[in-house]
Write a structure and sequence with these properties.
Shape: elongated
Number of helices: 4
Largest sheet: 6 strands, antiparallel, barrel
Strand order of the largest sheet: 3-12-16-14-13-17
């Protein structure tokens, strides 16, 4: 053990990063083995079997949160994305009606002005178009009136007396009457068509005005909801987004988006995370001991009340998956338990008193059979064992070993086995 420590000091003194890690593993292993009353026999590291208490705890880290909270959200009447221009400091006491955040009104004001211009322009377009339609209508009316007068004159002075007019002149007069009659019909048709077209153009302008009016009303309504108000008294706490980040000035937010919480700090709970590889056996109803990082000497008891079905990364760029679970605390101390305070916890998975346990490295297995190597007067003998509960480093032996047995912690050389 002494030699190992000296060698580690020599390697780490050279600044070798991998050597540092290896030394830590070796030292921790040596310390854990020495605690099991181990010694070296025939070149094999061994230990004596004794009865002891066996506990399995699952470590977790996280933070405190209120069991009940009121969300502080962007007003539901707001339409479209908005830019956050001001935000109250995290963990600030507020009263009902206090402003906790503001959106930038500049863009909405600009849009309102531009839509107002477009709406007025369409009003002017409607007036201009109406004047044009009136002028065209008058021209058509005059055309009809003049053509009818010409037709009346042609009919009044028409004569088919061949003594006065030749047959060609008579035919020309008749054709002129037919032409004037057709011209009157054309003007009547044009007048009706123009009236229908003018009405359609005015309806189109009105429809466009209606669209601009709707936008004007929306922008006016948005400008009335540029402030986010606290619904009641409480402690204002930032709400994490889907990516785990807190809201900051400049963020784009939408209607109904939660930027914070007003937690009920009278009843607190712990939101915890445990690595997927260490969560085996974790279940709802298990007891846990929680420690505040700021008060590591004050344990608080609780119980697991919620557990995610799937593991997921805490950070979007992290490859490590965690199970999130919630521990309700038996008691809440308001003076020290504020939302967001960091905590670490141990979930008590298993506890057994006065049992036989061995390190996991001393157990060997093949095709579902488990065994250890027991020291005898003639060497190390392979002995089958029945396993009980297991932790990350130790296993309970139900049958196969007795107190006082000496077992090998590594595979004995063939010359030492019988």
């Amino acid at each position: 053990m002494k030699y190992v420590l000296l060698e580690c000091i020599r390697l780490t003194g050279k600044g070798l990063y991998l050597s540092k890690i290896l030394c830590v593993v070796i030292v921790v292993g040596c310390l854990s083995l020495s605690a099991c009353d181990q010694h070296v026999e025939d070149g094999v590291l061994t230990m004596n079997i004794t009865r002891e208490n066996f506990k399995v705890d699952i470590p977790a880290t996280g933070e405190l949160e209120a069991s009940q909270s009121t969300a502080v959200t962007v007003p539901t009447g707001l339409r479209g994305p908005q830019s956050l221009v001001w935000l109250l400091d995290n963990f600030t006491q507020v009263k009902a009606g206090d402003v906790v955040a503001r959106m930038d009104p500049e863009r909405e004001s600009y849009r309102l002005i531009m839509e107002g211009f477009d709406h007025k322009q369409l009003g002017f377009d409607s007036q201009i178009q109406a004047e044009k339609d009136h002028t065209v209508n008058q021209m058509l009316q005059q055309g009809i009136e003049i053509t009818r007068q010409e037709k009346d004159l042609a009919e009044r002075y028409f004569s088919d007396d061949e003594r006065v007019y030749t047959k060609i002149e008579i035919i020309d007069q008749m054709r002129n009457q037919d032409y004037l009659t057709a011209k009157v019909h054309y003007f009547d048709w044009s007048l009706a068509q123009h009236a229908s077209q003018a009405e359609a153009e005015q309806k189109l302008i009105k429809l466009k005005q209606k669209g601009h009016a709707a936008k004007i009303n929306r922008f006016k309504n948005n400008l009335k909801h540029m402030e986010i108000i606290a619904p009641h008294d409480g402690l204002f706490v930032y709400q994490k987004g889907w990516d785990g980040s807190f809201p900051v000035v400049g963020d784009m937010i939408w209607s109904g988006f939660a930027i914070g919480l007003l937690p009920d700090t009278s009843v607190m709970q712990a939101k915890l995370y445990v690595q997927e590889s260490e969560a085996s056996g974790l279940a709802i109803g298990q007891t846990a001991t929680v420690y505040l990082d700021a008060y590591p000497d004050r344990p608080f008891q609780g119980k697991v009340i919620q557990l995610d079905a799937l593991a997921k990364p805490k950070d979007k760029d992290s490859p490590v998956n965690y199970f999130q679970f919630t521990v309700s605390l038996d008691k809440t101390f308001v003076e020290i338990m504020q939302p967001g305070r960091q905590v670490h916890a141990s979930v008590h998975l298993l506890s057994a008193d006065d049992v036989l346990t061995v390190p996991n490295q001393s157990i060997f297995q093949k095709e579902g059979q488990y065994w250890v190597y027991v020291k005898t007067v003639n060497g190390f003998m392979k002995r089958a064992v029945i396993l009980g509960s297991r932790s990350l480093n130790r296993t309970v032996i139900i049958d196969g070993l007795t107190i006082g047995d000496v077992i090998a912690l590594t595979t004995p050389p063939k010359r030492s086995r019988i």
